[in-house]
Specification:
Shape: globular
Strand order of the largest sheet: 1-5-4-3-8-12
Number of domains: 1
Distance between the termini: 27 Å
Oligomer: single chain
Strand content: 25-35%
Number of strands: 12
Number of helices: 5
Length: about 230
């Protein structure tokens, strides 16, 4: 339960620590039968993206000293269950605790509405479309999708520009969102030439339900996160 003494959509340090630890505990198990359920919406679909009001992202990139935006995976308590969500915070280019430059911003609930049978909007970048469709069509959700050589995947780190660039628009921000779409990368790793390795990833995009952006013909680029973050980073 979120602390009512802080602004809605923000987490305290204790809340973040607990929810992030719950995520790592779940995906750190070799076999986790409850894992698929944390990505399931109330309608039974698989969660395809999480979103942040664009005003929150403006605050995030405005943090003095910010050089990165860090995305961290968390499990939230939701009606007696736990659900996947995402936390963003601004940081400098170090890995030190004191390098955090903003509050912990929590994504809006992604499990309270149906994802739909399609992506919901056209994808202007063909490579991003492959990653997004890989996630949507994956046969199952297993801990192996979140594994790295150093331990379970706890999140990704962005360059600050990956969040600043989508903010450049000639439309009023109004009800626009920044959506982080869930993707899946398929590739052959150096350690396994017998079968494809699959690794969970994120893709960022601006969304405006009141303009052509919502119709999928906006031409906005997608941005892949190229810096996965295992524990201790």
């Amino acid at each position: 339960m979120q602390n009512n003494s802080i602004s809605p959509g923000l987490l305290s340090q204790d809340e973040f620590n607990q929810y992030a630890a719950d995520w790592l505990s779940l995906v750190g198990q070799p076999d986790s039968p409850t894992l698929p359920g944390v990505f399931q919406t109330e309608a039974g679909d698989r969660v395809l993206y999480v979103s942040f009001p664009i005003s929150r992202v403006v605050e995030l990139v405005s943090a003095v000293g910010a050089q990165q935006v860090k995305a961290r995976f968390v499990l939230l308590p939701a009606g007696g269950q736990k659900k996947f969500s995402l936390v963003l915070f601004a940081a400098d280019d170090t890995q030190q605790a004191e390098g955090r430059k903003s509050a912990y911003y929590l994504a809006e609930p992604s499990w309270t509405s149906a994802a739909g049978s399609q992506l919901g909007e056209a994808v202007p970048d063909s490579l991003a479309a492959v990653w997004l469709n890989n996630w949507q069509s994956a046969a199952g959700v297993a801990p192996a999708l979140f594994a790295t050589p150093d331990g379970p995947l706890e999140g990704y780190n962005f360059d600050l520009k990956d969040f600043v660039k989508p903010l450049f628009t000639d439309q009023p921000y109004d009800k626009q969102e920044i959506r982080l779409w869930l993707g899946l990368h398929n590739y052959y790793s150096p350690a396994n030439l017998d079968s494809l390795t699959q690794t969970f990833g994120l893709v960022v995009r601006r969304y405006d339900p009141l303009s052509a952006v919502g119709k999928g013909d906006d031409g906005d680029l997608f941005y892949d996160l190229s810096f996965p973050c295992p524990p201790v980073h």
